[in-house]
């Protein structure tokens, strides 16, 4: 519930966005999931939607848009995709990586 768009599954189209949330384990490895998601009819959010448990009525997901395409948006660099029903996602790959200094 504490996320910008509530209690959802947060996805990104850029691995660099997902990497911001990766914490290396004791051996320095990080893990990231590659997910196939069905957005259905997405709601384009210009502002935070704290405390959400579902997409707005009539929508299946939320896209947090950026200033690049929506000047009034509060996100600056990366779009975020939020799914509130885990059955709209499918795990494709688990990616194991180590950051290079």
TrEMBL record:
Transmembrane segments: none annotated. Pfam families: PARP. InterPro entries: ARTD-AVP, Poly(ADP-ribose)pol_cat_dom. It is an enzyme of class 2 (transferase). Its EC number is 2.4.2.-. One of its GO terms (molecular function) is NAD+ poly-ADP-ribosyltransferase activity. Residues 1-101 form the PARP catalytic domain. Keywords: Glycosyltransferase, NAD, Transferase. It comes from the Eukaryota. GO terms for cellular component: nucleus. This is Poly [ADP-ribose] polymerase. The lineage of its organism: Eukaryota, Cryptophyceae, Pyrenomonadales, Geminigeraceae, Guillardia.
């Amino acid at each position: 519930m504490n996320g910008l768009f509530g209690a959802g599954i947060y996805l990104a189209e850029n691995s660099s966005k997902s990497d911001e949330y990766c914490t290396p384990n004791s051996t320095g490895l990080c893990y990231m999931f590659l997910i196939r998601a069905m957005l259905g009819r997405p709601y384009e959010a210009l502002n935070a939607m704290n405390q959400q448990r579902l997409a707005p009525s009539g929508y299946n997901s939320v896209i947090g848009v950026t200033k690049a395409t929506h000047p009034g948006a509060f996100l600056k660099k990366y779009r975020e995709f939020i799914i509130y029903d885990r059955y709209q996602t499918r795990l494709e790959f688990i990616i194991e990586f180590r950051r290079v200094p």
